Predict the 3D structure of the following.
Amino acid sequence: MREGNLHPAITALAACVFKSLLCVVLLCVGGLETVRAQALPLHHGERVDYDLYFKWGLIMSKAGVATLSVKDSRFQEEPAWCYDLLFRTSGIVEKIFSMRDSITCFYSKEPKLLFSTKRTNDGGYYSIDDLTFDYRQGDMIEIHSLRYTLERTKIDTILIGKGNTFDMLGATMYLRSLDGSAMTHGAEYPFVIAIGRDLVNARFRYTGQQIVEHKGAKYRTRHFYIDIYDEAFTQTKEAAEVWIGDDENHIPVKIRAKLKIGAAEVYYKDSYNLRKPLDCRIVISN
């Protein structure tokens, strides 16, 4: 990514906000010993919209919008879930540094992550990242990581993961699949994310139930800290936080990631075709 003469705060946002959003939650391929994973709360045609903000001191400026969507599909002639994230900048950030990024993932109905493709258009820089997952004997996972631009191949390598190893977007399915009633304060859930040539270590830490308020709306949530061991974050412990709606849909309601300058904050805006009513939203009767 070329920085040019951008203000350091905008440079930090452009470099980190997308990764921050995608790395905060992950897919649970198998059950964890301390938490019983329940059926994924997914529904064909589900769509959730988010607003993204860049916060620096007292300044909080809208920086972009994102949409998560789910549909029934097929991958290599087998039934699959297709999970998409679309992100674009807006407002002043759009004028200074335009970003149009997307990730499309295919999961088996078990579910296991099969394939992920990330398409990046950041300020005129184009690239595609493909990850193909091959599940070996035991808990070993072979991941073919391929990154290329319009001109050349930049990465073509094999990563070897073990246990809970996923792509960036697999994020949202992990916490959505966990049984909140079985969680205990302080419980930790380690995982690894495949990015380019790297396997980035991270973990979730559950801290209990909280109320989230944004633009007059209130939501019951379960709060998690995320420790991310990556140079994009100035501190690895509590590098990010996520608040998951405390109802049967388990959608992310708020995300906050600390950046080298300021922070990125993501808020739930609207949803369509959820499997269950959004009961985590607090409705106050007159």
Observations:
- Residues 1-38 have pLDDT under 50 and may be disordered.
- The longest strand covers residues 59-75.
- Residues 50 and 269 are 5 Å apart (CA to CA).
- DSSP finds three helices and 16 strands in the chain.
